[in-house]
Known about the structure:
The complex is a heterodimer. By secondary structure, chain A is of the alpha/beta class. Chain A has 2 domains: 9-90, 2-Layer Sandwich (Transcription Regulator spoIIAA); 109-364, no CATH class. Chain A has 12 helices and 4 strands. Chain A has helices at 28-36, 55-71, 82-90, 106-140, 146-156, 161-183, 192-230, 233-239, 244-281, 287-297, 300-326, 332-364, and strands at residues 9-13, 16-23, 42-53, 74-80. The longest helix of chain A is centred in the middle third of the chain and has 39 residues, at 192-230. Chain A is elongated, with a radius of gyration of 35 Å. Chain B is 38% helix and 24% strand. Chain B has a 6-stranded mixed sheet. A 4-stranded antiparallel sheet of chain B has the order 2-1-4-5, with helices on one face. Chain B starts with 7 loop residues before the first strand and ends with a helix. Chain B has helices at residues 48-55, 78-85, 103-114, 119-132, 148-159, 178-195, 206-212, 230-235, 239-245, 250-253, 259-263; strands at residues 8-19, 22-33, 37-41, 63-68, 71-72, 88-91, 166-170, 198-202, 215-220, 223-228. By secondary structure, chain B is an alpha/beta fold. The chains are: A alpha/beta, B alpha/beta. At the A-B interface, helix 2, strand 4, helix 3 and helix 8 of A face helix 2, helix 3 and helix 11 of B.
Amino acid sequence: xxxxxxxxxxxxxxxxxxxxxxxxxxxxxxxxxxxxxxxxxxxxxxxxxxxxxxxxxxxxxxxxxxxxxxxxxxxxxxxxxxxxxxxxxxxxxxxxxxxxxxxxxxxxxxxxxxxxxxxxxxxxxxxxxxxxxxxxxxxxxxxxxxxxxxxxxxxxxxxxxxxxxxxxxxxxxxxxxxxxxxxxxxxxxxxxxxxxxxxxxxxxxxxxxxxxxxxxxxxxxxxxxxxxxxxxxxxxxxxxxxxxxxxxxxxxxxxxxxxxxxxxxxxxxxxxxxxxxxxxxxxxxxxxxxxxxxxxxxxxxxxxxxxxxxxxxxxxxxxxxxxxxxxxxxxxxxxxxxxxxxxxxxxxxxxxxxxxxxxxxxxxx
Amino acid sequence: xxxxxxxxxxxxxxxxxxxxxxxxxxxxxxxxxxxxxxxxxxxxxxxxxxxxxxxxxxxxxxxxxxxxxxxxxxxxxxxxxxxxxxxxxxxxxxxxxxxxxxxxxxxxxxxxxxxxxxxxxxxxxxxxxxxxxxxxxxxxxxxxxxxxxxxxxxxxxxxxxxxxxxxxxxxxxxxxxxxxxxxxxxxxxxxxxxxxxxxxxxxxxxxxxxxxxxxxxxxxxxxxxxxxxxxxxxxxxxxxxxxxxxxxxxxxxxxxxxxxxxxx
Lengths: 365, 264
């Protein structure tokens, strides 16, 4: 539809306002301006010549009528064309709407955030407790869903192996290149092997793998559970007498906790191979010497701390994914939001926990 | 046997339901007997779905009691609760079939989880149930590969997998074309006649109500406005009920004025 130039066809004689031709959303603003100036006066409106009228005109007339009543004027319609009559008859005056909620002030918002944080914490702890209890109970009754766990393990572990190894190979490569440039200045090139090995096994391997798995499996857990909740599948499970924690949460959590250390082992190896590549080609260190140096640098405690950390990462990622999935409210649009939120929260968790663990390990050892 | 002598399967007494500060249901009574189709009626947001959720134990009552098959769900421990839940079936609004499992496995799920039947017997049972809803061809298809009506039929097969005594249906005809909806209605009646189930149906589809309802309960703003057979309810002299059955706008019945009346 091409835009018409606003041209309200009207004539104002004393208190009588005659309008003809169209009265639609193009003309309404002019009509409203006109009526706004006459709120304290009596106005009779003649609509007998109106050929078409839409809801904007109805709203405008009702609004003006309300304002007139408040300010002591009087507005009413005198003659009405059939077209206008139809439009006016189509709408009912809405009953008084509930007051629009006021925007909360700064303090109130702060309070809301704190209360939300409290709720989050409580719910999170509850979920952690529920899953732990469910796990203990399943172990006790020997009713772990092995096939479910295996299925999830294949997806979360085996299928992620390629990308995890590739990323960590590149990471090892970069790390070695970076440290080689510094260590060469002291003629201590051979120590790149130590540096890469220790960094990969203790920190970078678990960290990088966890970030990757948070984006890959954590998000998919959140999205899957959230979708199931939105489509009432969780309710269906519950009324079939199947506990969603037991049926859905536990297999995913256990699979993730098992898959993480295994992935990290591969990640460590990939990182060290990446380092070896740079050591051999760029620094001209003989492969055997590099590997010997690596072997000497590695310690059982370092390896164990990395693997232990990875299990905690896996547990955290799984729990956060489940938490966001289970707490989704509303429609399908929310699914995307909680998925994103779960990844951000997971990575936050990984970095914080990684830092705490490093402090702890270096203070003990 | 007269329907009124049949066993009471569901007994809701003075149920109060709240979400936060909002009271959704305020003293609702409902009884369902074996072999009858009980329809819960009412406009949008009157608490129909909330009542259903309380009946099947998804929400716990804030007051009053819900008794299913003589037992109170909120008083049972997990084991007894699950045992009781095995005796009821629920058809959710959109079917709520597990998206990751084919139809056959969806129907088999309650059987696999709650019985020790041999695999072959379960498979045969699944076929029986699928045949009952005329869905045998879909056994190996995923829910996403089915149309809305087929999904609901499959979900009905899952709901009756364990031969429940009491079946709940949430808006069975919502979003279906009249023909599919009529087929589903016929299916519900067949279940009632063949298995003597008590069936609770939440709906606002007038044509569907006429076909299936043995008894009707009309909810409005968390209260029961009328309770009885369809004809009794229809005769109730209440503007909202009259508006519902004559398909007139509620605003008109409340006597709200049109813009025309106000401005002239």
